[in-house]
Amino acid sequence: MALLPALLNSRLWSLIVKEVQQILKNRQIIFLLLFPPTVQLLVFGLTLSPEVSHLSLGVVDYSRSAASREFVANLTANQVFDLHAVYSRAADLGQQVRTGQVSTGVVIPPDFADRLATHQRVDVQVLLDGVDANTAGIASGYLGQIVNHYGQSLVGGATRPVTMAVRFLYNPGLISSWFFVPGVMGVVLTLTGSLVSSSTLIREKDGGTLEQLLMTPALGWEVLVAKIVPLFGLLMGDVLLASALGRLVFGLPFRGNYGLFLALSGIYVFVCIGIGMLLATLARNQQQVVLISFFFNVPLIQLSGAIAPIESMPAFFQVLSFFDPLRHYVTIARSLILKGVGLEVLGGEGLILIGFAVILLGVSIRQFRAQLN
User: Which of 45, 168, 348, 373 has a Cα at 20 to 30 A from 8?
Assistant: First the structure.
């Protein structure tokens, strides 16, 4: 208990109070801490989705029969495809796909109804706009499922020797935001933490206030700790804000221990502060800080698996992603929020984050002190 009064009367506490007051007076810092994280989390969480729907469908129906009209009705029944227009020639349909007016085209042959009536195989031509490879692949899969289901309905649902019962764990509703939002939390924390900490330090370095502090009786480590502690507290506020938005807006279940989530997030906050301090040693002014941060943060985000699965990356980048601290934090966030696992599973990821925090803070503090000297 005697430590608390000693801390409150120490030079370190006075420096921390001074830093908090200085940060709270800076409207730019408060704006960076509150507005961008909220907007980014809401925009990314609401717009990012691997699902596709309402794709424009063009049809050339050479059969002009009841069977072909029923086939087209099956294609548009689940709202994945919307019938854009019916064309008289395949060349016209191809031109519409080429110009982007239609994303998917189907050409039904003249003998469609006759071959179905005699239980013969029917070849239907499909044209897909492959500029967006992901959407084209998903559309192709949807078409295959619809055609297979339509074919089974014609033969009376023939019995299959093997059946499959699928159960989706951790996200039974397949809600895409449950996958993206925990990753976006890490992205927002990385961007905000690195920019806020680097901007705070570079502004004081430019203004000469750090040199003035070093002329006081305060030791160098006290000055740096006084810089880090308020930033840590403010960025933990961003963690609380992001988790609250995830729970209230997107309905994230938070199945794991929330205290463990905050503790591991706190370790990652130190990683972000270390990145920001390192950026401050590389830049001469705030404009350079912003430009250099894009050079660092964009690869971190791309290799983290926050937006795209790591398994879809080339082997070299999958290995490289192990050196990305954001990857490990995204794994922690998704595992705690969706799976509810504990430290026995995430202990290794936590140790890796501690290693990143120690290395980044150690290197950045050493570089910063060298510049001040």
Answer: 373
CATH of the domain at 112: 3.40.1710.10
Residue 116 and residue 31 share a domain: no
In the sheet that holds 55-61, the strands lie side by side as 81-87, 55-61, 104-108, 125-128
pLDDT confidence tier of residue 284, bands split at 50, 70 and 90: confident
Average of pLDDT values for 153-166?
56
DSSP code at position 53: -
Would 367 be classed as within a structural domain?
Answer: yes
CA–CA separation, 123 vs 106, rounded Å?
Answer: 11
218 and 354 both lie in a single domain: yes
Residues 19 and 64 in one domain: no
The dihedrals phi and psi of 118, each to the nearest 5 degrees, come to: -100, 15
| Residue 121 reports pLDDT greater than 60 | yes
d(CA 316, CA 318): 5
State whether 253 and 368 are in the same domain.
yes
State which residues form the domain around 120: 55-154
Distances (CA, A) of 227 to 18, 98, 143: 10, 57, 58
DSSP symbols for 166-226:
----S-TT--HHHHHHHHHHHHHHHHHHHHHHHHHHHHHHHHTHHHHHHTSSS-HHHHHHH
Chain centroid to CA 32: 19
Domains in the chain, number? 2
Closest to 304 (Cα-Cα) out of 285, 327, 323:
327
